[in-house]
Amino acid sequence: MTVKSRGFITILTGLYSFQDCIHFLASVRKFHQEPIIILIDRVPKILYPLLTVFKNVILKPAPANENTVLASRLAKLALYEASSEFEKTIYLDADICLLSDINDVFDSLDKYDFLLTEDVQPKIVKATNLVRGKQEDTLPNVLSILQSVGLPLQEDSIQYNGGFMAFKKTESTKVFFEKFKYYFEIVKNNQDKLLLKDQGAFASAIATVRPKIKILSPAYNYLNKWKDCYQKIDEPIKVLHCTYPYRPQSAKDITNSIYTRVIDKLAKVILPNQITNPWRKK
């Protein structure tokens, strides 16, 4: 196999994010020509050509699961193996839109194993989004709940947003993904206490392996839904994390074309409403 120097990867499990993925591909191709791998599951093959219209798109099977949210979590665990063609990989969720090129992220991987962004609520001790129950009841006990199931987290542990990550092929990165899988299995086996999310397992793997990481500003993973949670950002937003229906018009203009307009019209007829995706409630 010929190893390319760098490339992108995303995940598409089920039809709920299909429209987002089309616009994701359009935004990447606006600024980059590197290969894009899509880990895909539960999408009819008749729709595959709508994705490969964009040049240099590689479709690979994601771990299959009826629960499309769990399938996407399992696919994230498989990113290291799936991106084996690349020395440097940028992973982005399919509901992301690039607003400019991010060549500087690839360049920074010369010095670091991982480039990450913190979650809008970075402190694990306040991560009520990871545990079951009402926020007011669980807030005082988040850390003890996470520790009780075997996650090696401490008061200073950080929650990262897994919608963006960049990594390079190193032994440290390989070990990290092995630990990520191990700790996610703990999360999956403790669904009576934990929600089916990967941030706790991700933070545990970071704490265990301690790869050489660089934390980027929210400009590289700007969650528009939570914009009121950010302090002033003194640089242009490069990576907008927001499902297509809720994007500002300036972001929609970036991916606007005859092709995407046709897809948007078809989406209203043939695609399920991703906002009401029932698997998100599991």
Automatic annotation (TrEMBL):
GO terms for molecular function: glycosyltransferase activity. InterPro entries: Glyco_trans_8, Nucleotide-diphossugar_trans. Pfam families: Glyco_transf_8 (PF01501). SUPFAM superfamilies: Nucleotide-diphospho-sugar transferases (SSF53448). Signal peptide: none annotated. Coiled coil: none annotated. This is Nucleotide-diphospho-sugar transferase domain-containing protein. It comes from Chlorogloeopsis fritschii PCC 6912.
